[in-house]
């Protein structure tokens, strides 16, 4: 696996240039060669079932996608288009901030696979999943990808 | 496949009691025995890449999930908890309202599979996918599910 | 969607040149512009749980993959490499021949999505799923793919 | 996570009672509290593309499923029915024995998620994926699952 080419600060700027990510209050709170950690600020509009007040699965899916893709961005310089993804819902996410941890499964010159886990404030995993990213779209700006 | 037990109006009330669905401006515009059609009102906060101004994949994923689950709700009386889902992204979704069409793949007493396609204003499919729903959670209120 | 460029006979030759497909006794029994139908000859070695004598999920997954990919082959001239896939298991598949029906969800110049359903001898759906195929790998031999 | 309730030897007996697993020459070569390692003996009938002589994706998918499910079996006493699965294909698997490593993502009383990676003889990862398993089916024989 190549070394990171972006810092947490550089990625943070890109992260919240994305309006929906900004709406979710996303913030990179950790980055090393193996993983990225992103927190989300809960808001009332994220509620799904109004009685149970659980957080909408679409929000959890977006978190999995963003955390996985921004670990790719750390290695490849920019997030890559998501081709497809799978999300597993493990527990209801009650109102409160969440944290997503993204890791790369395989970095490739055409396609890459990355995964993420989403945790609630008690550290319980509420969702996890993996996505396929079209890193081929980044080849022009990221020369080293051709080696994979 | 059993007949629908809920009307579009009944489902609409439930749909937007969900805060995030309301935020997305979801509206049921069609319902028959085979499919449900739900429109989404685009908003600036849904933008992902700010240059390309494409709609965030998390929004498309939420649409697939909601349309699939509300076709289950039409048959089973209530939406069922999402256990996992897969979303395929086919084209960039440019700014503009979207429509999701949900169908049931298999209705079961413990778990059910449903799918949905998401279309842009030109009728082009921008995403599609399928989810697994825990219809076993509905068994107490929906007696007939025990037959599946 | 473009017209088929291969006949069922041409595809059958390619299908069983593949040793594992031959081992499964695969046979194309139907092909039109929208779908391909492939039958599988059951064999004792396909059994999973020896008491229940159900067919192994790996066999059902292989059937979904092959049927989806050979509908792509009908349109694109050759099967494309599978990038990822999802399979849903709906019912236990008891001993007996199976039939898979493949359809294209979206045909693209770089990647394509196709789906398939697998039925038992009573016409009950035992599994279904979808895969992502790297049609970009076929571009040199299949010129028209560049248009998608 | 609870401790293993089965030894590698006990699981091996169950593993190859399954005819298709026996046909694939599966052998448990490692088991600890976190992971199970299973080797597969390559055979000519597993070839997909006859020119490239790569191993069929259906075989790799079956390996992911079996390794994930038998790690569940180590904890829960028996493999659980596969509800759905996702497989990512990372590299062509050339002729030769393979090794799958299975881990649990989340063990639950109704549904459980487990994952696996498949490696070739050079230690390169050729495929990986995750499945959803209906551990609720094991509740009668495995009392402690009710606690999850």
Percent helix range of chain A: 10-25%
Q: Give the helix/strand class of chain A.
A: alpha+beta
Oligomer: homotetramer
Low-confidence stretches of chain A: none
Task: State the CATH class of chain A.
Answer: Alpha Beta
CATH topology assignment of chain A? Thiol Ester Dehydrase, Chain A
- Approximately what portion of the residues of chain A adopt beta-strand conformation? 25-35%
Q: What is the overall pLDDT average of chain A? A: 94
Largest interface: A-B, 34 and 33 residues
Question: What is the overall shape of chain A?
Answer: globular
Q: What's the count of strands of chain A?
A: 6
The SSE string of chain A, one letter per element, is HHEEHEEEE
Largest sheet of chain A: 6 strands, antiparallel
CATH architecture of chain A: Roll
Annotation field: number of helices of chain A? 3
Distance between the ends of chain A: 9 Å
Number of domains of chain A: 1
Can you put this structure into words, describing what you see?
The structure is a homotetramer of 148-residue chains. The first copy, chain A, is α+β, with helices and mostly antiparallel strands. Chain A has one domain: Thiol Ester Dehydrase, Chain A (Roll), CATH 3.10.129.10. Helix content of chain A is 24%, strand content 30%. Chain A has three helices and six strands; from the N terminus they run ααββαββββ. In chain A, strands 1-2-4-5-6-3 form a six-stranded antiparallel β-sheet, covered by helices on one side. The longest helix of chain A has 20 residues, at 57-76. The first copy, chain A, is globular. Chains in contact: A-B, A-C, A-D, B-C, B-D, C-D. The A-B interface holds A 17-23, 44-50, 56-59, 61-63, 65-66, 81-89, 92, 129 and B 17-23, 44-50, 56-59, 61-63, 65-66, 81-89, 129.
């Amino acid at each position: 696996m190549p070394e990171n080419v972006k810092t947490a600060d550089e990625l943070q700027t890109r992260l919240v240039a994305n309006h929906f990510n900004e709406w979710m209050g996303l913030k990179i709170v950790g980055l090393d060669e193996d993983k990225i950690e992103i927190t989300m600020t809960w808001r009332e509009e994220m509620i799904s079932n109004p009685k149970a007040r659980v957080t909408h699965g679409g929000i959890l899916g977006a978190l999995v996608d963003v955390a996985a893709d921004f670990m790719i961005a750390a290695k490849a310089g920019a997030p890559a288009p998501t081709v497809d993804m799978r999300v597993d819902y493990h527990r209801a996410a009650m109102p409160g901030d969440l944290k997503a941890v993204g890791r790369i499964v395989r970095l490739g010159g055409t396609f890459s696979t990355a995964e993420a886990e989403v945790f609630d404030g008690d550290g319980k995993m509420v969702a996890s999943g993996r996505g396929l990213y079209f890193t081929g779209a980044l080849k022009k700006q990221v020369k080293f990808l051709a080696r994979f």
